[in-house]
Amino acid sequence: MKEEIPILRKAEEFLQIFRKGEEFTKSLLKENERLRFRVAELEEELAQSTNESRIKNYKERIRMLEAEIASMKDRFNEVERENKDFAKRYIEVEEENNNLANLYVASYQLHSTLDYEEVLKIVLEIIINLIGAEVFAILLVDEKNNRLIPVAAEGMDKDSIPEMEIDSGLIGEVVTEGEGYFSDEMVRLKEIDPRNPIVCIPLKIKEHVIGVIAFYSFLIQKTSFSSIDYELFNLLAGHAATAIFSSRLYTQSERKLSTIQGFLELLRDKPGK
Question: What does pTM read for this prediction?
Answer without folding.
Answer: 0.60
